[in-house]
Write a structure and sequence with these properties.
It is globular and about 60 Å long. Helix 1 runs parallel beside helix 6, helix 6 runs antiparallel to helix 8 and helix 8 packs across helix 9. 49% of the residues lie in helices and 7% in strands. Strand 1 and strand 2 form a beta hairpin. It has 255 residues and is mainly α. The strands form three sheets. The chain has a three-stranded antiparallel beta sheet with strand order 1-2-3. This is Aminotransferase-like plant mobile domain-containing protein. Pfam families: PMD (PF10536). It comes from Anisodus tanguticus.
Length: 255
């Protein structure tokens, strides 16, 4: 499972100017706030024991609970009503490189298996002077680099915290997801929320059946969701309808 947001990704975020940060927050909702959430692997592993893949619920003796799209929206502020959903599709390493304006380097065998490392993205897009340092690897101009910069960040964030692969790998198909939420399709904005929900159901099912020991889902939000249900709030109405960032305020609400 994801072990938290990497320090390099935090530096990358700090390297954006204020306008770029506001643009990213508008598109990714509160997901950037996951920077401050510490992973609780013991809690997530315990939750897996209570997962019923046939009923798609957590079953605790006399009652059952499960995720909903409304709760995804509650934590992330990702609008889903009235929007089509993103359907991820495979993207070859060549297309991944072409979209990000990077030349196809045959020495990088990882692209043959359609994955990329977070370090690879950071060295080329995360540094303030990334374009100047590795200019020979880019097929785009500096202006194109600046346009792709936020999307490359989204690929890293989504690929390491929401849809992680084992050993820190990022699937190249995440690039098509990031591109879609930033650019839309035929001038239509799509939502990431159903994909987030589907991925965690799939990850829970695989782990419960013993098909894998690696949780390929958003364990950071899963643990917050669980704690929110286990914690007794004095006034739930105020919390539900508060305009505050629910991820930023999570530790204050559950202390």
């Amino acid at each position: 499972m994801a072990s938290g947001i990497t320090d390099k990704l935090k530096v990358w975020w700090a390297n954006f100017d204020l306008v770029s940060q506001m643009t990213i927050r508008r598109i990714l909702g509160c997901l950037v706030s996951l920077f401050d959430i510490s992973p609780d692997q013991h809690l997530v592993k315990t939750l897996i024991w209570f997962w019923d893949p046939d009923r798609v619920v957590f079953k605790f003796r006399d009652y059952e609970i499960t995720h909903t799209l409304e709760e995804i929206n509650y934590f992330t502020n990702l609008i889903y009503q009235g929007r089509g959903q993103i359907i991820p599709h495979n993207q070859s390493g060549k297309k991944f490189l072409r979209y990000l304006g990077l030349k196809n380097t045959k020495e990088l065998r990882c692209f043959e298996n359609n994955w990329v490392s977070s370090d690879y993205l950071y060295e080329r897009y995360g540094r303030r002077d990334g374009y100047k340092l590795i200019k020979k690897e880019f097929s785009y101009t500096p202006d194109h680099w600046r346009v792709r910069h936020p999307i490359a960040f989204a690929v890293d964030l989504l690929g390491t915290s929401l849809f992680p692969l084992e050993h820190g790998k990022i699937s190249t198909c995440i690039c098509s997801v990031a591109r879609t939420i930033f650019e839309g399709v035929d001038s239509t904005q799509l939502t990431l929320a159903p994909m987030i929900l589907a991925e965690v159901f799939q990850a829970l099912g695989k782990c419960e059946r013993g098909e894998t020991n690696f949780f390929e889902g958003y364990n950071l939000i899963l643990q917050m969701w669980a704690m929110e249900h286990f914690y007794r709030h004095p006034n739930m109405v105020d919390i539900l309808f508060s305009e505050s960032n629910k991820i930023d305020s999570f530790y204050d609400r559950t202390k």
